[in-house]
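Model the whole thing, not chain by chain.
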Amino acid sequence: MSSTAATTDRPRRDNPTIERLKSLEFWSEQAAIIGLLIAVVVFSILSSTFLTGANISDLLVSAAILVLLAIGQQFVVAVAGIDLSLGATLPLGACVIGLTVATHGWSLGPGMAAAVVVCTAVGIVNGTIIAKVDVSDFIVTLGTFGVVNGLALISVDGTSVAVNSTFLQDLALNSFLGIRWFVWIGLVVAVVAHLAIFRTRFGLGLLATGGDRAAARSMGIRVDRRRIAAYAISGALAGLAAILLVARTGSADPALQTNLLLSSIAAVVLGGSSLFGGKASIVGTIAGALLLTALINGFTLLEISEYYQPIAVGLVVISAAVLSRFQGRTG
Amino acid sequence: MAETNGSTAFSLVTDQAEPNAAPGEPLVEAVDVVKSYGAVKALRGASITVRRGEVHALMGDNGAGKSTLIRCLAGVHPPDSGELHFDGQPMRLTAPSDARDLGIETVYQDLALVQELQVWQNLFMGRELHSGPFLRRVAMRDRADELLGDLLVNAPAARARVRGLSGGQRQSVAIARAVGWSSALVIMDEPTAALGVQETAAVEEVVERLHKDGLTVLLISHDVEQVLRMAQRVSVMRQGEVVGDREADDTSADDIVALITGASREDKA
Amino acid sequence: MNAHLSRMVAAALLLLAASTAALGCADRDAGGTEPGKASVAVATRNFNNPYWAALRDGAVAEGERLGLEVNVQAGASETDAAGENQKISTQVIQDYSCYAAVPVNATNIITPLLPASRDGKAIINLDTQIDLAAADESGLGVTSFIGSDNVQAGEIAGKGLLEAIGGPGEVLILKGIPGEQNGINRIKGFTEATRGKLEIVGSQVANYEQSEGLNAAEALLKANPNVKGVFAANDTMALGAAQAVRNADLSGEVKVIGVDGIEQALEAVKSGKLEGTVTQYPYVEGQLAVQACQALALGKKIPRRIVSPVALIDKSNVDRQIKAFPKPIIDYKNPLTRLLKGES
């Protein structure tokens, strides 16, 4: 074939690293890591505390809950979905621990397991309605947000329940091999998630389902199952995050409303994933979560007013979204 | 490219099934197939015989029933009545996977490629090589590079993302995937309809090489010149029936156009 | 995926973090802790609520007055326990001499403050009492609680309403979030102060919300035509109840009294819609927190419980309070003044 027309070259013939550095797409996909590097450099210049071992350790611990939620969100986004119910599933998980352990006197192990099971069930319900009835993920998870929120309130009768446990306190404060337990948990989940998405048939099916559901289906992938699984994983990780939340706050609070839901989506977008699905990056998502946490940490150290923090976080997310325009979704 | 007993050398797997019939024998037959969608009768007794080793073109106007007929052969829609044969045996297809198990692969117009994924991931999608829960990524990439390199002059890298490929390369990847699974028959639905002149030439070359290698192809096309260039046999559909079968050497563009438009009609029993 | 490059970048980042982490322990940007001079970290739920903003302003103003470093941080909302905890744990790293915090619930600030407590830093509980049993169990040493006495606030409200009604009569009660201790204490104080004099004929939960207060009061007023007064456990519910009274054309006949002293309530007292409000002074709580920390830095012993003032604001003194807001218009006995005398 003598065609030298507008076909792409074989990238493997060139130096792929140099090629990649030249493309705007690369920079948009690495937005979180680059943003994190910039934040680290700026904050360490402005604050002598920022790059101390104690603060880095605190930053990573603070980020752990968000990291778990963002990885769960990443699975859902990988199948071109979105899980808005996470914001309510997290306090529900906490309330399950409060209800079982503090109110009904279960021991901690079964109580924590119950939290994960209940949250996973929420995910399965989400996924089943979305995949089998083919209703908009946005609507379904917004609806379950309300239902789950109500269940959490009912379960503990609307009040916060104190969960006193030296195990949970140690989990929140202690270290293993010099690294805090929260960080270990985030690390292990991240590695498992990365392997699951990029190294298994299951993960490839997830990405195919998210990238082009019709194509995946016609290649024999059971797309419904993959979608349900993604939401189930998201729920399960919310349950795990709930354990960390109870450990950190010493209580199960049904009214707990946090920015964690929006931050989980922001972290995934910052990490270079496409909300249209088919593209995932655990490394990017974690960098996104760390960036969002580092901004708050740095602002706290510098005593910058509370009011500026959401503005900065918002601007960072918008910048990432603008960059992602250059990811050229050619048809 | 190592040629073995007439089977295609282009394969994603090493343990491929050997064909058990000689070239020229009927491979897939449809006899008097009727298919209605509600009140619309899309097929009114269509019959076609695709012979082993041939590139068989299927032509006809829009709405003549071409797509419905290949959907019946691909297992997407079971026919209302009529018979399907594979290798002389009756075949019952209830799902696309049934057809695929027999070795009938279809390259649809939308190609069914996931843009965000890499070429090798698309080639092996749904049929990945794995050990335990883990993918054998290196093995699949190597195999994909080999296959594409054998098949295409300007092959994309196995690790290239489909989104970055040209239309012709995508078509080639989709065809490569269809032939890569030791297929008996590859159905191609207007593979060059969306392509420019040079890319069309490239895809035609791929089909030509596959034909030389012994692959059987059922090709839907609107381009008479292309059909006469590539196919050994041409069937023309009109109003849900196959109204003419021609050997490519025995016919002309005018003859085929006349069959398509209904200016001449040769009823088949 | 770009896995290769991102891995390289991530590795570089980790290396950077690890190498600087090895450099050792933290020192705060604004200078270390001088002996005899407290450095104070204050944390509260949020700054959107004027109540907590006043607490912050009081702490900052007192810090300036005494020449002390004061850092006030907050979460994002009334229930943002995780956000507040994150702020606290960052403050703990900055090594202040004294930590004062308003909890979101009975336990949330215990875990993040533990490392500071183990370091021997002073911990002061502000405004809302934490679960002391849980604090003890985890080993958190709480030096002192600073807050208003909500039972006392309820008592003052009860006496005020009794006086406004001018004799025995039927009253209604609007309750806050079920299980919330401050609200429970206010109702308790009110009930005890009016026992035998005012008859509580109806009470309903309205979750500290104005619209719920309006709806609940409307329903209760219809069911109880002889009602003379309403006690709401906070001002927003009181404002809702005042609206219900006006809707029922009972202005002047049914007196409404609330607790908190928010600006809207003061305006309503001025215009006569509200009979009165028992104001608390979060601004003073902030001041007291900084003073307590400084007293501790000077080696003084401070009381386990420091009560910040409350006062009934009615038509007679509302103008003065609006002018002085958020500072108090009453004299109160500050046990810390003596401890700090001559030292700053």
